[in-house]
Amino acid sequence: MTVTTTLARWSRKSNRRRFVETTARILPWLAAFAVLGIYAYERKGWIAAAIVGAIGAIAVGWHALRLMRRVRHKPQTIARVLDRQHHTFDLLQTAHAIESRGAAPEDPLEQLVLVRAGEVAPRLDKVAVAPLKLRSSPLGALGAMAACALLFLTGAGAPPIAPAAPTNALGERQQKQAQDLAHTLDDLAKDPSIPSDLKAQLERAKEALNHAATAKTGKEALAALSEAQRLLDEAAPQLAKLDDTSKLTTQQLADKMASAAKAGDGSRLAQLAKEAMHRAAASPADAQQLSDAMAAAAAAAASSPESGDPWSGSKTMDPSSPEAQRLAALSEAAKSMKSGDMTAAGEQLGELAKSSGMSGSSDPRASRLASARDAIASMRAAERAALNGMSPADARAEAARASGMRPGGRPGSRPGSMGSMMGLGRMPGMGKPGMGMRPGMGRPGMGPGMRPPPGATSGISLLTEDGPRPPGGAAGSSGAHGGTTPSGATEPPETVMSEEVDPGKPMSADGIIRAIAEHSAGDHRSVRFDAVRDHYEAIAEAAIHRDEIPLTRRDFIQRYFEALRTHDEDQ
Amino acid sequence: MTTLPMAAVAPPPVLPTDQPVDEWALANATNALNVVLDELGKVVLGQQQLCREVLLGLLGGGNVLIEGQPGLGKTLLVRTLAEAVDIVSSRIQFTPDLMPADITGTQVLMRDETGKSTLEFRPGPLFANLVLADEINRATPKTQSALLEAMQEHAITVAGVRRVLGEPFCVIATQNPIETEGTYPLPEAQLDRFLLKVTVGFPTLDVLRSIGVATTGNTMASAKRVMERDALIGIQRMVRQIVVAPHVADCAAKITMATHPEQPTSPERIRKFVRFGASPRAMQALLLAGRANALVAGRAWVGVEDLTAVAAPVLRHRMILGFDATLDGITTDALVADVLATIA
Question: Least CA distance to B246: which residue of chain A?
Answer without folding.
Answer: A97
